[in-house]
Amino acid sequence: MILVNENFLKLKAGYLFPEIGRRVRVFAAENPDAPIIKLGIGDVTEPLVPAVTKAMHTAVDEMAKKETFHGYDDGGVGYEFLREAIVQNDFKSRGANVASDEIFISDGAKCDTGNMQEIFGLDNVVAVTDPVYPVYVDTNVMAGRTGENDGKGRYGKMVYMPCTAENNFVPELPSQPVDMIYLCYPNNPTGAVATKEQLKKWVDYAVENKAIILYDAAYEAFIRDDSIPHSIYEIEGARKVAIEFRSFSKTAGFTGVRCGFTVVPKDLVAYTKSGQAQPLHPIWNRRHCTKFNGVSYITQKGAEAVYSPEGKKQVKEVINLYMSNADTMRAALTEQGYQVFGGEHAPYIWLKTPKGVDSWTFFDLLLNKANVVGTPGAGFGAAGEGYFRLSAFNNPDKVKEAMQRISKI
Amino acid sequence: MILVNENFLKLKAGYLFPEIGRRVRVFAAENPDAPIIKLGIGDVTEPLVPAVTKAMHTAVDEMAKKETFHGYDDGGVGYEFLREAIVQNDFKSRGANVASDEIFISDGAKCDTGNMQEIFGLDNVVAVTDPVYPVYVDTNVMAGRTGENDGKGRYGKMVYMPCTAENNFVPELPSQPVDMIYLCYPNNPTGAVATKEQLKKWVDYAVENKAIILYDAAYEAFIRDDSIPHSIYEIEGARKVAIEFRSFSKTAGFTGVRCGFTVVPKDLVAYTKSGQAQPLHPIWNRRHCTKFNGVSYITQKGAEAVYSPEGKKQVKEVINLYMSNADTMRAALTEQGYQVFGGEHAPYIWLKTPKGVDSWTFFDLLLNKANVVGTPGAGFGAAGEGYFRLSAFNNPDKVKEAMQRISKI
Fold first, then answer.
1. Distance from CA of B355 to the nearest CA of A (A)
2. What is the full DSSP assignment across A169-208?
3. What is the count of residue pairs from A and B with beta carbons less than 8 Å apart?
4. Which residue from B260, B262, B265 is spatially nearest to B235, judged by alpha carbons?
């Protein structure tokens, strides 16, 4: 008799964003004329930049000719032209030591952050911040690393590290031993960033406790203060304890194109139950090459163009546009009396909901009264209750309009 | 202490094709002038057809403009324009009943066949043919559904169904209870096909035994006899027991573009240990939307064009070219005295190695003496020993040249 993976039955009914999509569709069906402004899911709105589309057109033409056609990307780990551009621009330029064969090109950071847990044993204790990007939690639930859902959004065995206004969104080191630590900076959803000193504490903790840090840096391009690290490998010792996830989704508007990458340093090890150290690079390589077959050549050529001089300039302009939205939102919401966090080095504004209004109620209120879609903090975890995320990804005019409408409710 | 997933340590050192790549690189380094002809990995050589590249250029232009830009593919399951084209052309046209919301667009059948096992319990018994596409086996090893490797390429707990010349490459129904059955027709690597009657036996077996069939139809476009089923859903009852995997890789030369899809019918269930039936469609949907973020809009527009009148005509011409290579190879090798199988409804020729020559020795012999790369049968499983796979994906001239060279050794 075919058995189902019962861990899936522990999951809450829907992944957060489909549930938001469902509510918006219901509202739109009942109010077909409502001029909805979406500041919810965090999807980009600006088109691909010219340097990228030019490179993609050229790549499509190459794929149309026998002499320049590309089939499988050998091994599926990504073309050297892209991996080398990443090494030079994302790591060497910031003094971080990463080699091109430690980089695995993928179809996005969501997939990689979801898949990476597979190479670790099921007995590891997982630590996440609360609130947190739901993928880290849900994929560990599916794998069986947690107990049951407590009905309030928390799972047994998982260690939650609250990040609230009270601790300035800086999680404390866990008081109990943990093995897999998910960190995301600039943070989704709170918009908080980590200083070098704060990250150093985590690296030292991981070294001491033989833990692994799964570091999601998908939003590093939004950092505006040069002293804030873009990569965990800017921290001494990180190569021994950290895997880093990156994405072109927000950096270069690739949400609908799909490209990201993951760094698995060769210094990393995990242990067998008998205590034998096992290098993780070959294990992830085996996983990647067995279950994945590479990213489109056309996409990889587009990603490479992000690092060209024009590409860099063009994507920077787009990021500045989004960040100027964030400035607008911070100013308007603060003026309206909201307590506002984030939005300084991240495309997300994290605000406190009005007293006595929970985050899904605030979601419905904004949707109904202002026709503005945001994301309820509770969707990111129990400690996200009482907070609300607004994304800076939209046209400046729409963002201003949304702020005006919110001011009237 | 961070624990590794020790199941990975059960795996043989390398995935088959990287190992072949390694041997070829070593040979090429030592013999830089050797005119190597690759009939190994099964990668396509013909460029994308004009209908596809035209659609991709248009899609790139759409992505370059704000008004027509596409971000996330909502939910990541694929655009309706593509899912509907698939329903009409791949299923309705053959009398198979599949709805568009049962189709999940993905970045390829390798990923889907590898990932699908996640939604099933770890106690299920897995049955595979031998020889077999290694991904089915390796991904179940990684998940922990098998015992140790016996050193001869077989894993404990897994049920192997030999397919050899003796049984005409038709596996027998398992004599012990099995829960997850991987079938691939037209078969990789043997090139064998299954008749309606043969598939009906499997469907009936699965219904009776509450088993699930994981049906890989990645090569259906190569079928030349209309009475042979292209989809398992042409068989009555299959909607209750079968998941089907499809790919644009070989059909439309998308190995370097990455697009495929999987059908999970709403009639499918698996069971909890206590015997409660759980529909699988919502569970796979949850898995897909949590760990995957959709396929590039540009790629999906290219895939849609495969179903346009010009697209259909153009991809058919490419398939005919490859199949005419297969005809050439069958004829030449038969004349040379080899026992030849497959290649009639599949792009793979499966031949018996000369008496006393094992398949890796034959691989080295072909590489060294004829500078031709094939795939040793033993790489596909213990029962593949004594066989050898040659792929029909290459230029007709190179294929003819390869046959001539082989005739001289």
1. 32
2. T-PPPPSS--SEEEEESS-TTT-----HHHHHHHHHHHHH
3. 263
4. B265
> Pairing state of beta strands B260-263 and B103-106?
antiparallel
- Is residue B192 within 8 A of residue B163, CB to CB? The reply is yes
CA A282 to chain centre: 25
Residues sharing a CB contact under 8 Å with residue A373, sequence separation 6 or more, in sequence order: A20, A24, A36, A37, A38, A39, A40, A363, A366, A367
Q: Tell me if A165 sits within 8 A of A195, measured CB to CB.
A: no
Q: What is the CA radius of gyration of chain A?
A: 21
CA distance B222 to B233: 18
> Could you give the C-alpha distances from A190 to A132, A195, B110, B386, in angstroms and in order?
9, 15, 36, 60
**Bridge partners, B162 (sequence order):** B130
Closest to A218 in 3D by CA, of A195, A252, A241, A242: A252
> Domain spans of chain B?
6-47+312-407, 53-309
Report CB contact under 8 Å: B120, A53: no
Maximum Cα interatomic distance, chain A, rounded to a whole number of Å: 66
Q: Of chain B residues 192-221, which have a CB less than 8 A from chain A?
A: 209-212
Q: Out of B212, B258, B293, name the one closest to residue A295 (CB).
A: B258
Type of residue at B328 = T
Architecture of domain A6-47+312-407 in this structure: Alpha-Beta Complex (3.90)
- The pLDDT score that the predictor gives to residue A74 is 76
> Can you tell me which residue has the tokens 């939307």?
B289
- Whole-angstrom distance, CA of residue B113 vs CA of residue B244: 9
A50-63 and B50-63 helices, crossing angle to 10°: 180
Residues in B closer than 8 angstroms to A110, CB to CB, are 291-293
In this structure, are residues B69 and A45 in contact, taking their beta carbons and an 8 Å threshold? yes
Q: Which of A5, A257, A293 sits opposite B296 (nearest CB)?
A: A257
> Residue A343 corresponds to which amino acid?
G
Taking the C-alpha atoms of residue A255 and residue A248, their distance in angstroms, rounded to an integer, is 8
B53 contacts A291? CB cut-off 8 A: no
- List chain B pLDDT tens, one digit each, 409 residues: 999 999 999 997 666 787 888 899 999 999 999 999 999 988 999 999 999 999 999 999 999 999 999 999 977 999 999 999 999 999 999 999 999 999 999 999 999 999 999 999 999 999 999 999 999 999 999 999 999 999 888 999 999 999 999 999 999 999 999 999 999 999 999 999 999 999 999 999 999 999 999 999 999 999 999 999 999 999 999 999 999 999 999 999 999 999 999 999 999 999 999 999 999 999 999 999 999 999 999 999 999 999 999 999 999 999 999 999 999 999 999 999 999 999 999 999 999 999 999 999 999 999 999 999 999 999 999 999 999 999 999 999 999 999 999 999 8
Q: Are B348 and B133 in contact (CB under 8 A)?
A: no
The third-level CATH classification (topology) of the domain covering B53-309 is Aspartate Aminotransferase; domain 2 (3.40.640)
Per-residue pLDDT tens over the stretch A136-177: 999 999 999 999 999 888 999 999 999 999 999 999 999 999
Distance of alpha carbon A286 from alpha carbon A263, whole angstroms: 15
Q: What is the interface pTM, i.e. ipTM, of the complex?
A: 0.97
The predicted pLDDT at position B368 comes to 96
Q: What is the DSSP string of B44-60?
A: --SPPPHHHHHHHHHHH
Q: Considering only the beta carbons, identify the residue of B1, B57, B294 that sits closest to A258.
A: B294
Per-residue burial over B254-279, b = 16 or more CB atoms within 10 Å of its CB, e = otherwise = bbbbbbbbbbbbebbbbbeeeeeebb
